[in-house]
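Re: [help] complex structure
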Amino acid sequence: MVSKKVGNQTVVFQNPPIVLSGYNVVGPKEGEGPLKGSFDKVLADTYDGEKSWEKTEAKMLETAMREVVNKANVPLVSVDYILAGDLLNQIISSSFAARQIGLPFIGLYGACSTMALSTALGAVLIDGGFASKVICSASSHHDTAERQFRLPTEQGNQRAMYAQWTVTGAGSLLLGNSGAGPKVTSATFGRVIDYGETDTNNMGAAMAPAIADTIINHFSDLNRQPDYYDLIATGDLGSIGLQLVLEILNKSGTKTGINFTDCGVMIFSPKQDTHAGGSGCGCSAVVLTGHILKKIISGELKKILLIGSGSLHSSTSSLQGESIPAIGHAVSIEA
Amino acid sequence: MKEIRELYNKRGEKMNQSNLRPPTINLTPKEYKEITQRISPKPKVLKNVIMAFLVGGLICSFGQILINFYMNYTGLSKIAAQMAGTASLILLGALLTGLGVYDKIVKIGGAGGIVPVTGFANSMVSPALEYKREGYVFGVGGKLFTVAGPILVYGIVTSIIVGISYSIINWF
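Output below.
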Protein backbone atom coordinates (compact mmCIF):
# COMPACT_ATOMS: atom_id res chain seq x y z
CA MET A 1 0.00 0.00 0.00
CA VAL A 2 1.30 3.42 -0.96
CA SER A 3 1.63 5.79 1.96
CA LYS A 4 -0.32 9.00 1.65
CA LYS A 5 1.83 10.69 4.23
CA VAL A 6 4.54 12.90 2.78
CA GLY A 7 7.44 14.27 4.77
CA ASN A 8 7.01 14.96 8.45
CA GLN A 9 3.47 16.21 8.86
CA THR A 10 1.62 16.29 5.56
CA VAL A 11 -0.89 13.98 3.90
CA VAL A 12 -1.54 14.11 0.15
CA PHE A 13 -4.89 12.70 -0.90
CA GLN A 14 -4.83 10.07 -3.66
CA ASN A 15 -8.44 10.59 -4.61
CA PRO A 16 -8.85 14.20 -3.53
CA PRO A 17 -12.22 14.74 -1.80
CA ILE A 18 -14.50 17.20 -3.55
CA VAL A 19 -16.01 20.30 -1.97
CA LEU A 20 -19.65 19.80 -3.00
CA SER A 21 -20.92 22.99 -1.37
CA GLY A 22 -20.30 25.60 1.29
CA TYR A 23 -22.74 27.51 3.46
CA ASN A 24 -22.39 30.15 6.15
CA VAL A 25 -24.36 32.26 8.59
CA VAL A 26 -22.94 35.45 10.10
CA GLY A 27 -23.95 38.10 12.61
CA PRO A 28 -24.92 41.69 11.77
CA LYS A 29 -21.44 43.19 12.28
CA GLU A 30 -19.83 40.68 9.90
CA GLY A 31 -22.69 41.34 7.47
CA GLU A 32 -21.64 45.01 7.32
CA GLY A 33 -17.98 44.19 6.66
CA PRO A 34 -16.02 44.12 3.40
CA LEU A 35 -17.04 40.51 2.65
CA LYS A 36 -20.79 41.11 3.05
CA GLY A 37 -21.58 39.93 -0.46
CA SER A 38 -20.10 36.47 0.16
CA PHE A 39 -22.32 35.36 3.04
CA ASP A 40 -25.34 33.10 2.57
CA LYS A 41 -27.29 34.37 5.59
CA VAL A 42 -26.85 37.48 7.71
CA LEU A 43 -28.66 37.62 11.07
CA ALA A 44 -30.57 40.83 11.84
CA ASP A 45 -29.39 40.82 15.47
CA THR A 46 -27.08 38.74 17.65
CA TYR A 47 -29.96 36.85 19.33
CA ASP A 48 -31.92 35.86 16.22
CA GLY A 49 -35.05 35.27 18.31
CA GLU A 50 -33.37 32.98 20.86
CA LYS A 51 -33.27 33.45 24.62
CA SER A 52 -29.52 33.15 24.96
CA TRP A 53 -26.49 33.70 22.74
CA GLU A 54 -25.48 30.09 23.33
CA LYS A 55 -28.76 28.97 21.75
CA THR A 56 -28.20 31.36 18.85
CA GLU A 57 -24.75 29.92 18.19
CA ALA A 58 -26.04 26.33 18.17
CA LYS A 59 -28.89 27.40 15.86
CA MET A 60 -26.50 29.13 13.44
CA LEU A 61 -24.36 26.01 13.31
CA GLU A 62 -27.39 23.78 12.77
CA THR A 63 -28.53 26.02 9.92
CA ALA A 64 -25.07 25.90 8.36
CA MET A 65 -25.03 22.08 8.59
CA ARG A 66 -28.52 21.61 7.13
CA GLU A 67 -28.24 24.22 4.39
CA VAL A 68 -24.86 23.02 3.12
CA VAL A 69 -26.49 19.65 2.39
CA ASN A 70 -29.56 21.29 0.81
CA LYS A 71 -27.34 23.47 -1.35
CA ALA A 72 -25.54 20.42 -2.74
CA ASN A 73 -28.96 18.92 -3.45
CA VAL A 74 -28.26 15.59 -1.75
CA PRO A 75 -30.36 13.84 0.91
CA LEU A 76 -29.25 14.42 4.51
CA VAL A 77 -29.26 10.67 5.20
CA SER A 78 -26.56 10.14 2.57
CA VAL A 79 -24.09 12.04 4.78
CA ASP A 80 -21.91 9.77 6.92
CA TYR A 81 -20.48 12.09 9.57
CA ILE A 82 -20.58 15.57 10.98
CA LEU A 83 -17.19 16.90 12.05
CA ALA A 84 -17.56 20.09 14.01
CA GLY A 85 -16.20 22.17 16.85
CA ASP A 86 -16.52 25.54 18.54
CA LEU A 87 -15.02 27.57 21.38
CA LEU A 88 -17.47 26.99 24.21
CA ASN A 89 -16.74 24.67 27.13
CA GLN A 90 -17.42 21.03 26.19
CA ILE A 91 -18.08 22.24 22.59
CA ILE A 92 -21.79 22.60 23.38
CA SER A 93 -22.70 24.53 20.23
CA SER A 94 -21.55 21.66 18.02
CA SER A 95 -23.06 18.89 20.13
CA PHE A 96 -26.36 20.74 20.48
CA ALA A 97 -26.51 21.38 16.74
CA ALA A 98 -25.66 17.73 15.99
CA ARG A 99 -28.40 16.65 18.42
CA GLN A 100 -30.93 18.36 16.16
CA ILE A 101 -29.60 16.71 13.01
CA GLY A 102 -29.19 13.10 14.10
CA LEU A 103 -26.16 12.07 12.04
CA PRO A 104 -23.07 10.43 13.56
CA PHE A 105 -21.06 13.26 15.09
CA ILE A 106 -17.34 13.63 15.67
CA GLY A 107 -16.74 16.58 17.98
CA LEU A 108 -13.45 18.42 17.55
CA TYR A 109 -11.60 21.01 19.53
CA GLY A 110 -8.90 22.91 17.74
CA ALA A 111 -9.87 26.33 19.10
CA CYS A 112 -9.95 28.76 16.18
CA SER A 113 -8.18 26.26 13.90
CA THR A 114 -11.28 24.02 13.95
CA MET A 115 -12.48 24.78 10.40
CA ALA A 116 -9.15 23.72 8.90
CA LEU A 117 -9.02 20.74 11.26
CA SER A 118 -12.54 19.51 10.44
CA THR A 119 -11.90 19.92 6.70
CA ALA A 120 -8.59 18.07 6.91
CA LEU A 121 -10.05 15.20 8.94
CA GLY A 122 -13.15 15.03 6.74
CA ALA A 123 -10.89 14.69 3.71
CA VAL A 124 -8.89 11.98 5.49
CA LEU A 125 -12.09 10.01 6.19
CA ILE A 126 -13.22 10.26 2.58
CA ASP A 127 -9.91 9.50 0.93
CA GLY A 128 -9.43 6.61 3.36
CA GLY A 129 -12.70 5.12 2.17
CA PHE A 130 -14.39 5.49 5.55
CA ALA A 131 -17.06 7.88 4.33
CA SER A 132 -18.62 9.08 1.10
CA LYS A 133 -19.91 12.43 2.38
CA VAL A 134 -19.05 14.44 5.47
CA ILE A 135 -20.10 17.82 6.84
CA CYS A 136 -17.16 19.87 8.14
CA SER A 137 -18.18 22.78 10.35
CA ALA A 138 -17.10 25.32 12.93
CA SER A 139 -18.78 28.21 14.72
CA SER A 140 -18.21 31.03 17.17
CA HIS A 141 -20.30 33.85 18.62
CA HIS A 142 -18.86 37.14 19.83
CA ASP A 143 -20.97 37.36 22.97
CA THR A 144 -20.68 33.72 24.10
CA ALA A 145 -16.90 33.94 23.71
CA GLU A 146 -16.72 37.26 25.58
CA ARG A 147 -18.73 35.77 28.45
CA GLN A 148 -16.57 32.66 28.67
CA PHE A 149 -13.11 34.08 28.09
CA ARG A 150 -13.35 37.72 29.14
CA LEU A 151 -15.87 39.93 30.94
CA PRO A 152 -19.67 40.32 30.95
CA THR A 153 -20.67 41.89 27.64
CA GLU A 154 -22.07 45.11 29.16
CA GLN A 155 -19.04 45.59 31.41
CA GLY A 156 -17.26 48.76 30.38
CA ASN A 157 -13.57 48.39 29.51
CA GLN A 158 -11.03 49.60 26.99
CA ARG A 159 -9.75 46.82 24.74
CA ALA A 160 -6.08 46.73 23.84
CA MET A 161 -5.19 48.05 20.40
CA TYR A 162 -3.84 44.60 19.47
CA ALA A 163 -6.98 42.76 20.68
CA GLN A 164 -9.24 41.03 18.18
CA TRP A 165 -13.00 40.76 17.85
CA THR A 166 -14.56 37.28 17.97
CA VAL A 167 -16.59 36.70 14.81
CA THR A 168 -20.25 35.73 15.11
CA GLY A 169 -20.61 33.11 12.43
CA ALA A 170 -20.91 29.47 11.47
CA GLY A 171 -19.64 27.83 8.31
CA SER A 172 -19.93 24.36 6.78
CA LEU A 173 -18.38 22.53 3.87
CA LEU A 174 -19.84 19.35 2.41
CA LEU A 175 -17.08 17.04 1.21
CA GLY A 176 -17.82 14.06 -1.02
CA ASN A 177 -15.96 11.33 -2.87
CA SER A 178 -17.65 12.02 -6.21
CA GLY A 179 -19.18 14.97 -8.03
CA ALA A 180 -17.90 18.24 -9.37
CA GLY A 181 -16.17 21.02 -7.51
CA PRO A 182 -12.87 22.14 -6.03
CA LYS A 183 -10.73 19.43 -4.45
CA VAL A 184 -9.05 19.17 -1.07
CA THR A 185 -5.61 18.06 -2.18
CA SER A 186 -3.43 17.98 0.92
CA ALA A 187 -3.40 18.68 4.62
CA THR A 188 -0.65 19.47 7.10
CA PHE A 189 -1.47 18.77 10.73
CA GLY A 190 0.30 21.18 13.05
CA ARG A 191 2.36 20.75 16.16
CA VAL A 192 1.62 22.56 19.40
CA ILE A 193 4.10 25.41 19.61
CA ASP A 194 4.52 27.80 22.53
CA TYR A 195 6.81 30.79 22.30
CA GLY A 196 5.93 32.05 25.74
CA GLU A 197 3.26 34.71 25.05
CA THR A 198 1.06 35.12 28.14
CA ASP A 199 -1.16 38.05 27.12
CA THR A 200 -4.55 36.57 26.17
CA ASN A 201 -5.43 39.81 24.38
CA ASN A 202 -2.51 39.33 22.01
CA MET A 203 -3.67 36.08 20.39
CA GLY A 204 -2.05 36.90 17.07
CA ALA A 205 1.36 37.02 18.75
CA ALA A 206 0.66 33.78 20.63
CA MET A 207 -0.33 31.92 17.45
CA ALA A 208 2.11 33.27 14.84
CA PRO A 209 5.02 30.88 15.66
CA ALA A 210 2.76 27.80 15.41
CA ILE A 211 1.38 29.01 12.08
CA ALA A 212 4.87 29.73 10.75
CA ASP A 213 5.95 26.23 11.81
CA THR A 214 3.05 24.61 9.95
CA ILE A 215 3.64 26.74 6.83
CA ILE A 216 7.37 25.91 6.77
CA ASN A 217 6.64 22.20 7.25
CA HIS A 218 3.94 22.23 4.57
CA PHE A 219 6.30 23.66 1.98
CA SER A 220 9.26 21.49 2.93
CA ASP A 221 7.15 18.30 3.07
CA LEU A 222 5.68 18.96 -0.39
CA ASN A 223 8.82 20.58 -1.77
CA ARG A 224 6.79 23.60 -2.84
CA GLN A 225 7.35 27.33 -2.74
CA PRO A 226 4.72 29.81 -1.48
CA ASP A 227 4.17 31.06 -5.05
CA TYR A 228 2.56 27.68 -5.81
CA TYR A 229 -0.65 29.09 -4.27
CA ASP A 230 -2.75 32.01 -5.47
CA LEU A 231 -3.78 32.70 -1.91
CA ILE A 232 -2.31 31.68 1.45
CA ALA A 233 -4.78 32.64 4.15
CA THR A 234 -4.10 32.24 7.85
CA GLY A 235 -7.16 31.68 10.03
CA ASP A 236 -7.45 34.50 12.55
CA LEU A 237 -4.06 35.98 13.31
CA GLY A 238 -5.32 39.53 12.87
CA SER A 239 -3.18 42.38 11.63
CA ILE A 240 -0.48 42.03 14.33
CA GLY A 241 -0.23 38.25 14.01
CA LEU A 242 -0.05 38.46 10.22
CA GLN A 243 2.87 40.92 10.42
CA LEU A 244 4.58 38.63 12.93
CA VAL A 245 4.13 35.48 10.84
CA LEU A 246 5.55 37.24 7.77
CA GLU A 247 8.52 38.43 9.82
CA ILE A 248 9.14 34.90 11.18
CA LEU A 249 8.88 33.36 7.69
CA ASN A 250 11.24 35.91 6.17
CA LYS A 251 13.77 35.34 8.97
CA SER A 252 13.44 31.55 8.53
CA GLY A 253 14.10 31.54 4.79
CA THR A 254 10.56 31.25 3.41
CA LYS A 255 9.79 33.87 0.79
CA THR A 256 6.53 35.69 1.42
CA GLY A 257 4.57 37.65 -1.14
CA ILE A 258 1.32 39.47 -1.73
CA ASN A 259 -0.54 36.14 -1.79
CA PHE A 260 -0.32 36.02 2.03
CA THR A 261 -3.37 37.26 3.89
CA ASP A 262 -5.45 36.54 6.98
CA CYS A 263 -9.17 35.81 7.33
CA GLY A 264 -9.34 38.01 10.45
CA VAL A 265 -7.92 40.94 8.48
CA MET A 266 -10.28 40.35 5.54
CA ILE A 267 -13.56 40.05 7.45
CA PHE A 268 -13.67 43.50 9.10
CA SER A 269 -12.71 46.89 7.75
CA PRO A 270 -10.55 49.18 9.93
CA LYS A 271 -13.59 51.50 10.17
CA GLN A 272 -15.46 48.84 12.16
CA ASP A 273 -13.13 49.51 15.09
CA THR A 274 -12.34 45.88 15.93
CA HIS A 275 -8.71 46.89 16.53
CA ALA A 276 -6.57 44.01 15.15
CA GLY A 277 -9.36 42.24 13.19
CA GLY A 278 -11.54 39.16 13.58
CA SER A 279 -10.93 35.94 15.49
CA GLY A 280 -12.78 32.80 16.57
CA CYS A 281 -13.62 29.51 14.87
CA GLY A 282 -16.29 31.28 12.86
CA CYS A 283 -13.75 33.67 11.32
CA SER A 284 -11.92 31.24 9.05
CA ALA A 285 -15.11 29.15 8.69
CA VAL A 286 -17.16 31.93 7.09
CA VAL A 287 -14.31 33.38 5.04
CA LEU A 288 -13.41 29.93 3.64
CA THR A 289 -16.99 28.86 2.91
CA GLY A 290 -17.93 32.31 1.62
CA HIS A 291 -15.37 34.60 0.00
CA ILE A 292 -12.61 32.05 -0.75
CA LEU A 293 -14.85 29.22 -2.00
CA LYS A 294 -16.80 31.59 -4.25
CA LYS A 295 -13.56 32.87 -5.78
CA ILE A 296 -12.37 29.31 -6.42
CA ILE A 297 -15.66 28.40 -8.08
CA SER A 298 -15.63 31.56 -10.20
CA GLY A 299 -12.09 30.71 -11.31
CA GLU A 300 -10.47 33.80 -9.81
CA LEU A 301 -8.42 31.61 -7.47
CA LYS A 302 -7.05 28.24 -8.54
CA LYS A 303 -4.97 27.02 -5.61
CA ILE A 304 -5.37 28.15 -2.04
CA LEU A 305 -3.89 27.20 1.30
CA LEU A 306 -5.81 27.82 4.51
CA ILE A 307 -3.90 27.61 7.78
CA GLY A 308 -6.36 27.57 10.67
CA SER A 309 -4.81 29.10 13.76
CA GLY A 310 -5.83 28.05 17.25
CA SER A 311 -4.65 29.16 20.67
CA LEU A 312 -5.04 26.29 23.07
CA HIS A 313 -5.39 28.04 26.41
CA SER A 314 -8.35 28.12 28.78
CA SER A 315 -9.49 30.94 31.03
CA THR A 316 -8.21 28.88 33.98
CA SER A 317 -4.76 28.24 32.50
CA SER A 318 -4.22 31.90 31.65
CA LEU A 319 -5.30 33.05 35.14
CA GLN A 320 -2.81 30.55 36.56
CA GLY A 321 -0.12 32.32 34.57
CA GLU A 322 0.52 29.63 31.95
CA SER A 323 1.75 30.77 28.55
CA ILE A 324 -0.46 30.21 25.50
CA PRO A 325 0.27 27.12 23.38
CA ALA A 326 -0.94 27.36 19.80
CA ILE A 327 -1.49 25.19 16.76
CA GLY A 328 -1.92 25.60 13.02
CA HIS A 329 -3.54 23.12 10.65
CA ALA A 330 -3.23 23.65 6.90
CA VAL A 331 -5.46 22.42 4.09
CA SER A 332 -4.96 23.08 0.41
CA ILE A 333 -7.94 23.38 -1.92
CA GLU A 334 -7.42 23.40 -5.68
CA ALA A 335 -9.87 24.02 -8.47
CA MET B 1 19.19 13.41 18.82
CA LYS B 2 22.50 14.77 20.10
CA GLU B 3 22.91 17.08 17.11
CA ILE B 4 19.39 18.43 17.56
CA ARG B 5 20.09 19.05 21.23
CA GLU B 6 23.18 21.04 20.29
CA LEU B 7 21.17 23.12 17.84
CA TYR B 8 18.80 24.09 20.64
CA ASN B 9 21.67 24.72 23.04
CA LYS B 10 23.19 27.12 20.54
CA ARG B 11 19.94 29.10 20.58
CA GLY B 12 20.08 29.22 24.35
CA GLU B 13 16.97 27.04 24.57
CA LYS B 14 16.35 23.84 26.42
CA MET B 15 15.32 20.97 24.20
CA ASN B 16 12.21 19.44 25.63
CA GLN B 17 10.46 16.29 24.56
CA SER B 18 8.31 18.08 22.00
CA ASN B 19 11.33 19.16 19.97
CA LEU B 20 11.99 15.96 18.10
CA ARG B 21 13.28 17.81 15.09
CA PRO B 22 15.58 20.75 14.42
CA PRO B 23 13.82 24.09 14.94
CA THR B 24 11.96 25.37 11.87
CA ILE B 25 11.73 28.94 13.12
CA ASN B 26 14.95 30.88 12.98
CA LEU B 27 14.11 32.94 16.07
CA THR B 28 14.43 32.22 19.78
CA PRO B 29 11.48 32.98 22.06
CA LYS B 30 13.48 35.93 23.43
CA GLU B 31 14.04 37.43 19.98
CA TYR B 32 10.40 36.78 19.17
CA LYS B 33 9.28 38.64 22.26
CA GLU B 34 11.26 41.69 21.19
CA ILE B 35 9.64 41.65 17.74
CA THR B 36 6.19 41.25 19.30
CA GLN B 37 6.75 44.23 21.53
CA ARG B 38 7.96 46.31 18.60
CA ILE B 39 4.99 45.43 16.37
CA SER B 40 2.11 45.45 18.89
CA PRO B 41 0.56 48.95 19.00
CA LYS B 42 0.86 50.82 22.29
CA PRO B 43 -2.11 52.52 23.95
CA LYS B 44 -2.36 56.25 23.19
CA VAL B 45 -1.57 57.42 26.72
CA LEU B 46 -2.01 61.20 26.28
CA LYS B 47 -5.35 60.87 24.48
CA ASN B 48 -6.59 58.30 27.02
CA VAL B 49 -5.57 60.48 29.98
CA ILE B 50 -7.33 63.54 28.54
CA MET B 51 -10.49 61.57 27.73
CA ALA B 52 -10.50 59.98 31.20
CA PHE B 53 -10.18 63.45 32.77
CA LEU B 54 -13.04 64.85 30.69
CA VAL B 55 -15.44 61.91 31.09
CA GLY B 56 -14.65 61.35 34.79
CA GLY B 57 -14.87 65.10 35.40
CA LEU B 58 -18.23 65.33 33.64
CA ILE B 59 -19.69 62.47 35.71
CA CYS B 60 -18.40 63.98 38.98
CA SER B 61 -19.58 67.49 38.05
CA PHE B 62 -23.00 66.07 37.32
CA GLY B 63 -22.90 64.40 40.76
CA GLN B 64 -22.10 67.79 42.33
CA ILE B 65 -25.03 69.37 40.47
CA LEU B 66 -27.29 66.65 41.89
CA ILE B 67 -26.00 67.24 45.44
CA ASN B 68 -26.54 70.99 45.15
CA PHE B 69 -30.02 70.35 43.76
CA TYR B 70 -30.94 68.10 46.70
CA MET B 71 -29.56 70.62 49.20
CA ASN B 72 -31.20 73.70 47.70
CA TYR B 73 -34.52 72.37 46.44
CA THR B 74 -35.46 69.38 48.61
CA GLY B 75 -34.20 70.67 51.93
CA LEU B 76 -31.89 67.71 52.62
CA SER B 77 -28.92 68.23 54.93
CA LYS B 78 -25.45 68.23 53.32
CA ILE B 79 -24.70 64.63 54.34
CA ALA B 80 -28.12 63.38 53.24
CA ALA B 81 -27.82 65.26 49.94
CA GLN B 82 -24.43 63.64 49.31
CA MET B 83 -25.98 60.22 49.92
CA ALA B 84 -28.89 61.02 47.64
CA GLY B 85 -26.50 62.28 44.94
CA THR B 86 -24.45 59.06 45.12
CA ALA B 87 -27.60 56.94 45.00
CA SER B 88 -28.83 58.86 41.95
CA LEU B 89 -25.52 58.30 40.15
CA ILE B 90 -25.70 54.56 40.95
CA LEU B 91 -29.23 54.47 39.54
CA LEU B 92 -28.06 56.28 36.42
CA GLY B 93 -25.05 53.96 35.98
CA ALA B 94 -27.26 50.90 36.34
CA LEU B 95 -29.83 52.30 33.91
CA LEU B 96 -27.22 53.16 31.28
CA THR B 97 -25.70 49.66 31.66
CA GLY B 98 -29.10 48.07 31.07
CA LEU B 99 -29.62 50.25 28.01
CA GLY B 100 -26.24 49.14 26.66
CA VAL B 101 -24.77 52.66 26.74
CA TYR B 102 -22.35 52.53 29.67
CA ASP B 103 -19.81 50.22 28.02
CA LYS B 104 -19.59 52.73 25.17
CA ILE B 105 -18.93 55.56 27.64
CA VAL B 106 -16.06 53.56 29.18
CA LYS B 107 -14.70 52.72 25.73
CA ILE B 108 -14.20 56.47 25.23
CA GLY B 109 -13.51 57.53 28.79
CA GLY B 110 -11.55 54.57 30.18
CA ALA B 111 -10.80 54.99 33.89
CA GLY B 112 -12.90 58.18 33.82
CA GLY B 113 -15.90 55.91 33.41
CA ILE B 114 -14.72 53.11 35.69
CA VAL B 115 -13.59 55.01 38.81
CA PRO B 116 -16.75 57.07 39.63
CA VAL B 117 -19.58 55.28 41.43
CA THR B 118 -21.40 54.88 38.08
CA GLY B 119 -18.60 52.51 37.07
CA PHE B 120 -19.20 50.49 40.22
CA ALA B 121 -22.89 50.26 39.30
CA ASN B 122 -21.84 49.06 35.85
CA SER B 123 -19.64 46.34 37.35
CA MET B 124 -22.58 45.08 39.45
CA VAL B 125 -25.35 45.31 36.85
CA SER B 126 -23.44 43.83 33.91
CA PRO B 127 -22.85 40.41 35.59
CA ALA B 128 -26.46 40.43 36.82
CA LEU B 129 -27.67 40.87 33.23
CA GLU B 130 -25.13 38.42 31.87
CA TYR B 131 -25.89 35.53 34.20
CA LYS B 132 -29.67 35.94 34.58
CA ARG B 133 -30.15 33.03 32.16
CA GLU B 134 -28.31 30.77 34.61
CA GLY B 135 -31.00 31.34 37.27
CA TYR B 136 -31.44 33.72 40.20
CA VAL B 137 -29.49 31.61 42.72
CA PHE B 138 -26.38 30.31 40.95
CA GLY B 139 -26.52 32.80 38.07
CA VAL B 140 -27.34 36.25 39.43
CA GLY B 141 -26.66 35.37 43.09
CA GLY B 142 -23.48 33.42 42.56
CA LYS B 143 -21.89 35.52 39.86
CA LEU B 144 -23.07 39.04 40.80
CA PHE B 145 -19.70 39.91 42.33
CA THR B 146 -17.45 38.43 39.62
CA VAL B 147 -16.24 41.90 38.62
CA ALA B 148 -16.91 43.94 41.76
CA GLY B 149 -15.77 41.18 44.14
CA PRO B 150 -12.03 41.98 43.97
CA ILE B 151 -12.75 45.72 44.34
CA LEU B 152 -14.81 45.07 47.48
CA VAL B 153 -12.36 42.55 48.98
CA TYR B 154 -9.30 44.74 48.56
CA GLY B 155 -11.21 47.95 49.29
CA ILE B 156 -12.44 46.58 52.61
CA VAL B 157 -9.08 44.99 53.50
CA THR B 158 -7.27 48.27 52.74
CA SER B 159 -9.74 50.26 54.82
CA ILE B 160 -9.26 47.88 57.75
CA ILE B 161 -5.47 48.19 57.52
CA VAL B 162 -5.70 52.00 57.31
CA GLY B 163 -8.17 52.07 60.22
CA ILE B 164 -5.96 49.93 62.46
CA SER B 165 -2.82 51.94 61.55
CA TYR B 166 -4.67 55.18 62.25
CA SER B 167 -5.77 54.05 65.73
CA ILE B 168 -2.25 52.76 66.54
CA ILE B 169 -0.74 56.13 65.54
CA ASN B 170 -3.34 57.91 67.68
CA TRP B 171 -2.19 55.87 70.72
CA PHE B 172 1.15 57.57 70.76
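Chain B has two domains: 2-39, 45-171.
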